[in-house]
Structure formats: structure tokens, C-alpha cells
Write a structure and sequence with these properties.
- The protein has one domain.
- It is mainly alpha-helical.
- α2 runs antiparallel to α3, α4 runs antiparallel to α5 and α5 runs antiparallel to α6.
- The chain is elongated, with a radius of gyration of 24 Å.
């Protein structure tokens, strides 16, 4: 559908541009190049002229490292996707999932200064902190373990076990 003499941008065009931007991000080429340049720059500032520094700098600037760095954006997105799936369909209580979602939101907001990868890393770290807090304060037991213990106590009270 087109709209003659209109400045209206078709939704499909916006979606295509967004998808292209997402795919470019997930390819990781720009991230790998920037990260590798930053890494070699830091090595140079920290004494890259030394014998060991030169070897480390050449290794950091190698094609193998660039290929490894290209995986980071996609892996980060996948891990955050798993965290989101855990919040949405996990078997934890509503309060537990609410705490996870809030922690992911706070972490993502704090990580926003690092762009999309910072948001993903912040959300992942927020979920990790939330899960760790729940583990420590909840005695380290899952919801299923607590249910089983309650069932065993009930059976013991009735003299069946």
C-alpha cells in the first residue's frame, strides 16, 4: 500500500530497517572491530613496546580474536532471551519472577550507557544478582524442593512416613 503525496512511512519499511539493524548488530562485525581496536589500544598504552606486550598485542589483533569477539553480541542476546523466558514461564512464584523482572530492568537501565550490548549485559547481571539473592535468602532451595519438603512433613505428621 502506498500513500501518494504523503510523508507517512509505511510500517513495513520501518520494520525492515529495524530488522536490518538488529541483524547487523547480531553479526557482531562492528562490535568485534571496535572491541579489538580498544583492546590493542589499551595494550599499547600499558607497555605494548615490551617483548611480551608486542606478542600480546599481535595476538589481540589476530583474526581468531576478531572471530571470537563476533560471537559476543549474539551470545549476549541469547542469554538474555533465556533469562526473559525464565521470568515469563518459570515455575517460580509471582514475587520471585517480579523481583527477577525488576532486577533485569534496573540492570538494563544501568547498562544502557554501553548501547545494546550494555543493556543485555546489565539485564543478565541483574537477573544473576536477583537469583543469587533469592538463593541466599531462600535457603538455596528451589520451589520444587520446598514443596517436596512440605509434603514429607505433612506425611510425617500423619504418621504415614
Amino acid at each position: 500500500m502506498s500513500f501518494p503525496n504523503s510523508t507517512f512511512v509505511e510500517p513495513q519499511v520501518k520494520i525492515n530497517k529495524s530488522m536490518n539493524a538488529l541483524l547487523e548488530f547480531l553479526k557482531g562485525e562492528e562490535f568485534a572491530k571496535t572491541a579489538q581496536d580498544d583492546l590493542t589500544g589499551l595494550i599499547g598504552k600499558a607497555g605494548g613496546a615490551t617483548k611480551i606486550g608486542g606478542k600480546v598485542g599481535r595476538f589481540a589483533n589476530s583474526p581468531a580474536i576478531r572471530k571470537a569477539l563476533r560471537v559476543v553480541p549474539g551470545l549476549s542476546a541469547a542469554l538474555v532471551g533465556l533469562d526473559v523466558a525464565d521470568v515469563l514461564v518459570g515455575q517460580d512464584s509471582l514475587a520471585n519472577r517480579g523481583m527477577d523482572a525488576a532486577a533485569m530492568g534496573i540492570g538494563g537501565t544501568l547498562g544502557a550507557v554501553g548501547g545494546p550490548l550494555g543493556i543485555a549485559a546489565g539485564a543478565g547481571l541483574g537477573k544473576m544478582v536477583s537469583d543469587g539473592t533469592q538463593f541466599v535468602l531462600g535457603g538455596g532451595k528451589s520451589a520444587e524442593q520446598r514443596k517436596i519438603e512440605e509434603a514429607v512433613k505433612l506425611l510425617q505428621q500423619r504418621g504415614l512416613v
